[in-house]
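User: Tr-type G domain-containing protein. Structure?
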Amino acid sequence: AGKSTAGGQILFLSGQVDDRTIQKYEKEAKDKSRESWYMAYIMDTNEEERAKGKTVEVGRAHFETETTRFTILDAPGHKSYVPNMISGASQADIGVLVISARKGEFETGYERGGQTREHVLLAKTLGVSKLVVVINKMDESTVGWSKERYDEIEGKMVPFLKSSGYNVKKDVHFLPISGLLGTNMKTRMDKSNCSWWSGPCLFEVLDCIQVPLRDPKGPVRMPIIDKYKDMGTVVMGKIESGTISEGDNMLVMPNKANVKVISVHCDEDRVRSAAPGENVRVKLSGIEEDDITAGFVLSSIKNPVSAISEFRAQLQILELLDNAIFTAGYKAVLHIHSVVEECEIVELIEEIDLKRRKEGDIKKKKSKRKPLFVKNGAVVVCRVQVNNLICIENFSEFPQLGRFTLRTEGITSNRTQISHDFECVCLSKLL
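Assistant: Predicted structure:
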């Protein structure tokens, strides 16, 4: 669809990449007979991605507008790399959904089982409440900045976004762009290109979106997404709550390791402290790199994150593999912040009838019953068990650590289907 090309163009337009580097990438792409891929090379750095023309890992980069500093998480779109996409989306405040206007490409992604549909559902359940839908490749000769094509795609996406839980009027923005040419990205569209568009450009839309507020004085919660050695142990992640400062004593959970913060880096700059919402690198003493795994959480000592192996959750079943039934004993893969862990549903506690709940029947307890199984579309409260201790929190207190997705994969067809979450409520705490 052009996600990496759009990401590369953003970095170029914001001055993060110079002309000489662009010329180098143009030559590399031309040598591989892939002239139009050169902007994607800025984000897709490994040879597999460049050879296949598809993102595999979550690319990470930074840029600034006049008012805001952004971290780009270039998540894979291909169905084989959905777990990597989940890792990227779980760290994001804003989702930029890139859709190709080229005939056939939008339709393939949007049809039942297509990746556009799955990514919208995943983004919503992973907490990405703000969505920018960019209709890309509008400059293609077969599209030609056609208002009819733009309206057709928007007309099909709006009902689906509403059914996925998005408030389209409040939280979703649509706009046409050309990621390859950079049209309508940093500056508004020239009327000679597209006479019918009078709306904002991408940078303006991103600047005006209000991201969720986080508590800088709250207990520290930083899910660790990666680690490496560099004259000590360095961990990477996004601060979801609290402030991390040089000299702080903290815990790495769930292994309860006492550590000290040696330094904090935002982007390439060393800082004395970092607040919620920042993507940071933190150098620690008191722990070896081998003793840390993605999914661990850097946490306050006085108020540490919960580490548990069983919890109670409310889930909405969106789609079951081959229309299977969801019952006790059902196994899936759980994705929560940076944790990926096999899990089992050990008990269905109650099924919730949302229609009756809305009508006020919940007081009469007519909306609840303990089921043996549920099917697609059901909302159910259940107990979930994992093999290893994981760090999670009550959804009401720390939404990003209490919101999760369950996925099952077909062994033979390798099709990915999703069933998933709304809230996670701790049943027990093993600290």
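The two ends are 45 Å apart (CA to CA). The chain has three domains: 3-208, 221-299, 306-426.
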